[in-house]
Amino acid sequence: MNRILVKETVNNVDKKVRLNGWVRVTRRMGKMVFIDLWDVSGIVQVVFSSDNQELLGKAKSLRPEFVVEIIGTVSKRPAKQVKKDLATGTVEIEAQELKVLAEAKTPPFEIVETDKEEVGEEVRYKYRYLDLRRDKNQQRIIIRSKAVKFIRDYLHKEGFIEIDTPILAKSTPEGARDYLVPSRQYPGKFYALPQSPQQYKQMLMVAGFDKYFQIAPCFRDEDSRGDRAPDQFFQLDLEMSFVTQDDILDLTENLFTAMVKEIFPAKHMTFDKWPRISHTEAMKKYGSDKPDMRKDKNDPNELAFCFVIDWPLFESKKEDGNYAPAHHIFTAPRTEDVPLLDKDPLKARSWQHDLALNGYEVGGGSIRITDPKVQAKVLELVGLSKEEAKEQFGHMLEAFTYGVPPHGGIAPGLDRMLMVLLNAPNVREVMAFPKTGDNREPMTGSPSEVSNDQLKQLHIKIDKN
Ligand code: ASP
User: Is any atom of ligand 1 closer than 6 Å to the C-beta of 205?
Assistant: First the structure.
């Protein structure tokens, strides 16, 4: 007999079915045993009656989180016993066979969420596979999957090409520390895990792909915050050729408007047309470059998306005389401001655009520099000597001499956006296997020491001081 999912029981009234899942709750009432059987699709009640003493005896030995196979008949509950808060509340299963597929120890915390004090992150993440069995967490991961699928389908329909870029890469500055991976074959050399696929996506435009996207893992060695994971996060990274800034913003707006409508129907938007306000206005009116423009900040379903544009190219001049980019070194200055790079770089405005949602920065991007001379100038202003610029970015400067299309893009952060859309307390809760706030993964125990042999192969000596 083929297995059906718990949620399908309601369409199989009076039929004999096979169910597989976990015992969530057991109840003994009089001579009967009831269990709540859980699988990825939901919960259904299973009844073991006194008609079959042998089966009842077996059912009495069931404990929460045992994995079972149950064969039984789906029967309609009398109207009075319908459970309205349960998707399968109109039916129950009269068990005829029971097989225990795996026993389970008592979990370190309740799987059925109670009002009791929540267990700490350390314990939850150590047993993340149990934590993920809880309804709320399971739903977050399932909705995340649906959102990603929606994005993929939408962009494919829009003519985008999904392309993977290397994980072992060369450092690309996005303003964070790199995670480095030592090379075995080249002693003293390192790969960097990408802070973003920025350089690769621009090379893909030079290669003529026109519209690229990737659900890209990005790695930044930063201290954790509520809205920032300490290690890895996912961006919807995209890039387009022959476009204006408005084209990029229109696409972003249309994509996420459609996604929210389809995947988060309970949400409503403050603005049908997302405001595009200048950086100066954002700072003046809201005192923030990621303004929270909600009308009612207590409404958990309100979404105020807005774009912040017209950023200065450089955020500041550092003590060493070098300039710090407001976005990154590939962002183009506005055409009319290019002469300012020689005269007064801090006055130059750029083609940067950020996406803000309810006071969070959930994405950024820009129209890129494609003139090798302007790129060389920006590299000089951030403090790279000609040799360093050539060593680190010579490949881009060179690529731009072989026919580079005008291009630009954006990279909305999926985790942070999902955190807001799912009303999750922090960004870690929308990831399947997050690190703790202090950058450990209690389940597998990473980071961990490695053998001396491995270190030797990588030409590494450890100095714990
Ligand atoms: N690479 C940028 C970032 O990670 C996004 C972009 O410019 O498209 O923020």
Answer: no
Please determine, for residue 206, whether its predicted confidence score (pLDDT) is greater than 80: yes
Structural tokens at position 423: 């009303």
| Full-model pTM | 0.94
Q: How far apart are CA 81 and CA 74, in angstroms?
A: 15
Q: Read off φ and ψ for residue 208, nearest 5 degrees.
A: 95, 20
Atom from ligand 1 closest to the CA of residue 409: 8
SS3 219: strand
Asked whether residue 173 carries a pLDDT value surpassing 80, the answer given is: no
- 131 CB within 6 A, ligand 1: no
The mean pLDDT of 125-148, rounded to a whole number, is: 96
Please name the residues in contact with 257: beta carbons below 8 A apart, sequence gap of 6 or more: 269
Kindly state if the Cβ of 365 falls inside 6 Å of ligand 1. Answer: yes
Peptide bond into 447 cis (omega under 30): yes
Report whether pLDDT(266) > 90: yes
* Å from CA of 418 to ligand 1 middle: 18
Longest dimension (CA), the chain: 92
DSSP annotation of 301: T
Cα-to-centroid distance, 94 and ligand 1 (Å): 56
Q: What is the DSSP string of 245-265?
A: HHHHHHHHHHHHHHHHHHH-T
Ligand 1 close to Cβ of residue 410 (< 6 A): yes
